[in-house]
Amino acid sequence: MEDGPYLNSRVDPLRDSFPELPRDPSKRTFLRAAGLLVAGSVLPHLQADEVPQVAAGSGRKVVAIIFGGVRRAETFSAEGLENIPHLAGDLLPQSVFYSQIRNEGVTAHFNAISSILTGNWQRVDDWGNLPPTTPTVFEHFRKRLGAPRSDTWMVASNKALTSQIGASSATDYGPEYGANVVFPKQLIITAVADALRQGRTATMADRAKIEAELESTLEGSNYEGLGWTVFDAADRLDPRARNTIKEAIANFVRSGGPTSGDELTFYIAREVMRRFAPRLLVVVFSDVEAAHFGSYAFHLTGIRTGDRLAFQMWQEVQANSEYGGKTTLLIFPEFGRDPDGSSTNGFFNHRANAESTRLTWMMALGAGVGKSQVVERPVRHIDLCPTLAALLGCPPMEALGTPLVELKG
Ligand SMILES: [Zn+2]
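Above: the input record for the complex with zinc ion. Below: its predicted structure, written as tokens.
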């Protein structure tokens, strides 16, 4: 196999983006094997004028996968590649890869996701007690294009998020135009905790009883108390959504395989795709946040799980007839984590005003990608929301961020 284009060219965009990548030829061979250096050379390219044109609002879909905090050191660096074999090996060569994307706002979960979803740097309560102050892309999409609620979903593992993430407090927007927001892990944890507290389940392993608890929990009406919100008039899940989630969780519990919060989140997100085929689905994986407990090993396990689940999501997008050929998949972290040796305890946290914490990456795949390439131009998290809107065929949003020109709706 011939060298990839970046080895032969005078300018090496990947190298410039990642100065930590080795010049050692043997390591280069490894990287090439990993697919990192053949980005753009393996698949036939569509030129911009060959990209199929689709009218605004005509059915394009977007799936966004957001990881919690991961540093470049553990992902797109020479040492980090082994943690992301699917992202680096399977997906990078067919992606538009933004190597320098910055969170310039608050590097805490609720504010970071709120900024991503609104295109403005949000500085609301870190724990999700208040909604974002400007419209989310969910509201914009639903209001401007008349999309039903079933077209907008967020499925998330992160316990720092709340249902307030699904809609803003902006005038003329708000819950009436909000997304379905589901926290599957919290639902299970709450059901199990209730069962344990009431002495009806001896151990976590008692899956049959847990399943019964889950079902009885879902029969109740207090979804708010479980971290769920579906913003319909009765403040309840509509029966179709409720049954879907109930069956999916029961099947997941019954399957008895190795579980994590992100596995469950993936499973539920996939069920939502298969039953409702939403046009805008945001999935938040958070196993990497085990770092807060000081376990580097669990943090790396979370990265590897996210890498695998992101790849499985891409496979689902391609195999699902409602998504294949018309969906753009975006994959990116919320932010990095603090640098080793920092006063904030290094990888444990994500609150240092440092490049390690603010500078991350994003990968885009699928229908909105005309030509696989590495984009080194610095971009910001607030540019993602207007990009999502454009990919969905929405009119421009009033936001601080601007759409990424490489991605087309
Ligand atoms: Zn965190």
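Notes for the reader.
The longest strand covers residues 61-69.
The first helix runs from residue 5 to 8.
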